[in-house]
C-alpha cells in the first residue's frame, strides 16, 4: 500500500482539491483507494460524504493528530493500494506526528499557485524535503490562461521537482466537488484529461518501478 501525502504549509493553494481529484483518478484507474483527512476544516471529509454511489467507491477516514499513527499501520491499510492523506495548512503544532507521516510517505505532493508570493512560501518546505531525501513534487495549481509563468517554474525547480502537468484555474473543480466528484468523474470534460495527465505522472513516480518489473515478468512468462 502506497501513501501519498498532500502538504504545503499554507492555505489557499488547492491542496484538498488536488487530493480528492487525484484520489478519484486513482479509483477510476482500478486501484483500491482510501482517503484520510487530518484537516480540522474537514473539506475532504464533507466531499467523501457527498460522493454518489454511482462513482467508484473511495472509503474515507477522518483522523485527528492523536490517532495519526493509525495511518502508518500497514495492517490497518492492507486492503488498499493507495492512501491519499490531506493535511491542514498549519502543521507546526504537531511536529512529531507530521514528521512520522513524512517519513512513511511514498510521495509528498506540494501544491502551489503559480505566483511568486505562493512559490516563495512553499519553496523552503520543498527544498527541505529534497535535502532530507523525501520523495516529493510540486504541482502548479489554479494556473491562469495566457499567463507566462516560466519564471515561477524555474524558481520552483531550484527548490525541488515540479510536475510537468499544470492544473488550470477551473470553477468546475468546485462544482464537481460539491457533488462529491472529481473532474475525472465527468466524462468529456477538459479538466478530466488534465487531471488524468497529472495522475499518470504521479502514478509513474509512485508505482513506476513496480509496474515495469511486473511487465517484464509477464513478458518473460
Automatic annotation (TrEMBL):
<protein>
    <submittedName>
        <fullName>ParA family protein</fullName>
    </submittedName>
</protein>
<dbReference type="Pfam" id="PF01656">
    <property type="entry name" value="CbiA"/>
</dbReference>
<dbReference type="InterPro" id="IPR050678">
    <property type="entry name" value="DNA_Partitioning_ATPase"/>
</dbReference>
<feature type="domain" description="CobQ/CobB/MinD/ParA nucleotide binding">
    <location>
        <begin position="4"/>
        <end position="181"/>
    </location>
</feature>
<dbReference type="InterPro" id="IPR027417">
    <property type="entry name" value="P-loop_NTPase"/>
</dbReference>
<dbReference type="InterPro" id="IPR002586">
    <property type="entry name" value="CobQ/CobB/MinD/ParA_Nub-bd_dom"/>
</dbReference>
Amino acid at each position: 500500500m502506497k501513501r501519498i501525502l498532500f502538504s504545503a504549509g499554507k492555505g489557499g493553494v488547492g491542496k484538498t482539491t488536488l487530493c480528492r481529484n487525484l484520489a478519484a483518478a486513482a479509483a477510476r484507474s482500478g486501484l483500491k483507494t482510501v482517503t484520510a483527512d487530518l484537516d480540522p476544516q474537514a473539506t475532504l471529509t464533507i466531499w467523501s460524504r457527498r460522493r454518489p454511489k454511482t462513482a467508484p467507491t473511495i472509503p474515507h477516514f477522518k483522523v485527528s493528530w492523536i490517532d495519526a499513527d493509525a495511518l502508518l499501520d500497514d495492517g490497518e491499510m492492507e486492503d488498499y493500494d493507495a492512501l491519499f492523506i490531506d493535511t491542514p495548512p498549519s502543521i507546526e503544532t504537531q511536529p512529531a506526528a507530521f514528521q512520522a507521516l513524512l517519513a512513511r510517505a511514498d510521495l509528498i505532493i506540494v501544491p502551489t499557485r503559480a505566483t511568486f508570493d505562493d512559490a516563495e512560501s512553499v519553496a523552503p518546505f520543498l527544498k527541505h524535503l529534497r535535502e532530507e531525501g523525501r520523495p516529493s513534487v510540486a504541482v502548479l495549481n489554479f494556473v491562469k490562461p495566457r499567463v507566462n509563468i516560466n519564471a515561477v517554474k524555474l524558481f520552483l525547480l531550484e527548490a525541488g521537482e515540479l510536475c510537468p502537468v499544470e492544473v488550470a484555474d477551473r470553477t468546475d473543480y468546485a462544482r464537481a466537488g460539491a457533488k462529491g466528484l472529481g473532474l475525472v468523474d465527468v466524462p468529456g470534460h477538459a479538466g478530466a484529461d488534465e487531471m488524468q495527465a497529472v495522475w499518470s505522472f504521479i502514478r509513474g513516480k509512485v508505482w513506476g518501478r513496480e509496474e515495469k518489473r511486473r511487465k517484464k515478468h509477464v513478458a518473460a512468462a
